[in-house]
Amino acid sequence: MRLVIIAGPPSAGKTAVVRQTVRALQDRHRTAYLKIDVVRAFEDEELAAEFGIPARKICSGDLCPDHAGVMVMRDAITWAEEESADLLLIESAGLCLRCSPYTTQGLGIAVLSAVSGTNTPLKMAAMLALADMAVVTRIDLVSQAEKEVFRERIREVNPDLEIVETNALQGTGMRYLLRAIEDCPDITDPDAIVLRGAPPLGVCTICIGKTDIGWQHHFGVIRKLEGADHLYRGD
To answer: What gap in Å lies between CA 103 and CA 120, rounded to an integer?
Structure first.
């Protein structure tokens, strides 16, 4: 079974990319789909109704979606295997833009919208830097000059990243993405899958429910307006 993890900012077009992928590969692959979101999600129901594929969702709630994805990844692989899938697509909300949900033994795809601003790739940190491929959507809504600038911004973050430009609603340019999925090796050992990068250290008392404002009231990794960018205070 192949593992493909798709992440990107909200409204970048991730589900449109998933939909085009499932539609193009449905005659050759049995696809399972997992949607990871924060509060509510409906994409699993829509894709299951449209394509008849096994689909599930998990809402991360108090966890960030990338954290939740790490927690449920092994269960998701087992579930997809039980569904006799040979392709597992995991769509992560990836809201904080500082984490990488991508793992070994899988294909990591970052989805960006061309209309989100030419500096967007520079804000995406590990989500873009550790991906295998960037899919830029809504290219029909920007000029050629904007597309070229956007492409160069991506290369500033990851010079080796393969870039696919598409209007995901119509599926233009998707053949390059589909080829990469077809060429992706199968999972060889699910128990040996690990994250590609180390998650950032960001634990503090806000994470456990303390509501006071001001760094003076908190412990763990804190930040001041002036002075050191990061400071560890207390135990």
So the answer is: 23
How many CB atoms within 10 Å of residue 172? 13
Which DSSP string do the residues of 8-39 spell out, in sequence order? -STTSSHHHHHHHHHHHHTTT--EEEEEEESS
Q: Is the dihedral of CA 174, 178, 184, 186 positive or negative?
A: positive
pLDDT tens figures, 13-38: 999 999 999 999 999 999 999 999 88
- 38, 65 contact by CB (below 8 A): yes
Whether the model pTM is above 0.70: yes
If one counts every other C-beta atom within 10 angstroms of the C-beta of residue 207, the result is 14
156 touches 121 (CB < 8 A): yes
Walk me through the domains of the chain, giving residue ranges and CATH numbers: 2-192 (3.40.50.300), 201-235 (no CATH)
Report whether 64 contacts 92 (CB < 8 A). Answer: no
Q: 110 with 199: CB under 8 angstroms? A: no
- 3-state secondary structure (DSSP) of residue 178: helix
Locate 140 and state its tokens.
């029909």
Pick from 184, 99, 111: nearest CA to 154: 111
Are the beta carbons of 1 and 80 closer than 8 angstroms?
A: yes
Closest CA relative to residue 135, chosen from 47, 70, 124, 37: 124
